[in-house]
Structures are given as structure tokens and as C-alpha cells.
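Subgroup meeting minutes
Present: P.N., E.W., G.H.
Scribe: E.W.

1. P.N. recapped why we're keeping a running log of single-chain structure predictions: easier to compare across weeks, and new members can see raw inputs and outputs side by side.
2. G.H. added today's entry (222 aa).
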Amino acid sequence: MDITTILFDLDGTLVDSAQETALILNQMRSERGYPPLNISFFREKISHGAPALIECALDFCEERTADLINEFRLKYKNITTPESSLYPMVKNTLNELKKRNLKLGICTNKPENLCNKVLKDTGIIPYFDSVISQTPSMKLKPNPEPVNAALTQLETTAKNTILVGDSTVDQRTCQATNIPFIFFKSGYNDGIVSNQIYASITHISELLDFNIFSVNTLKTNT
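Output recorded in log:
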């Protein structure tokens, strides 16, 4: 079985967004008279999404969660995600994968405007043939709809695709779509089931060490 397509999660897989997330939420805490939280608090919870993260970080607030989410996203839109937020060797790896004629896609639950901004800020948007993110009409992972939309855009099938991610949401998405799950161990692991992964990597550049065009060869690296 030949692999022609790689789908990537964004936060915790290509981009370490914990620093920006902590900065914004600690600012929101400070504005309400509360002390900052350690960045480790945010790393542990980022995979659960903004609503859950905000409910934990601002649990003392009487304001509506929806209002807090809107405030958080507005602040996020107004900051720059530096290229240094990319995990090591991400840009070089994406460049090399494109040279090997692989189709690359993003499949994230991040809102569309913030996803596109992060991709542009970090300089990696040109590498992707498809970007699927949160929109009013799109269901969120682990629902298979985002991945299926990416496969349609990329004119490929699940049997020719792998997905690289760091969370149980990504793992469950792969189970729902019958796509091999490549676990990025340096991300925000929120309880990955280790016997249900296809392969694991510590650095994105390790994808280049696999014979990425063959699932059978890839499987020997688990």
C-alpha cells in the first residue's frame, strides 16, 4: 500500500502554541486580579480545546464561557506566533516531503482565521495543499468529517494516507477514518493508548527516515 498523503494536526504537532496560549490566558487572569499560572498547566490542557482550557484557567469568572472564548480568540488574533514556535526541523521536513511529491494537509480544530494566521506567521502555509480547520459548517475531530473533507480536496483516499498528531482526539479521528495514526510524542499527549498507534516519532524529521511510501515498511518502526 503506497502512502501519497500526510495529514498533520497543528497545535502540539507542528507548532508549540503553549507560550502564546499561556501569555493570553495569564493576561486575562491578571486583568481580573488573579495570579499567572505556570505554562505546564496550559500544556496539559491545550489538546482539550479552547472552551475546556478557558473553563479551567478562568474557572473563577462569572462571565459566560462564550464571552471568554471570544475575548481569548480576539487577543490571539492580535498577537504574532513566531517561527520559533515551530517544533525543531518542521520547516525543513515539510520542504523535503514536498520534494518527494507527497500531498500535505492540515486537519485541526483550531478556528479557521487563527489557523491560517498561525500558518502564515510561522511561514509554513505554502507547504500545504489542503487546510481544514474549524468553521461553522464543519464538525470537529474526532468526527471523521474534517479528514474526509481533506481527502476530497487532496483527491486521495484513506488507504493512501497517514495522520500525524499528538492527542487522543487525533487517535480517535484515525480510528474513525481507518487511517494509520503516527503519534508525535513531543506534543501535548493527553493519554494516548499506546497499543493503538501505528508508529511514534519524537521529532517530525523522523518521518524522513521512514520509507514513507510504504505502509508495510512504516509499520516496522512501531
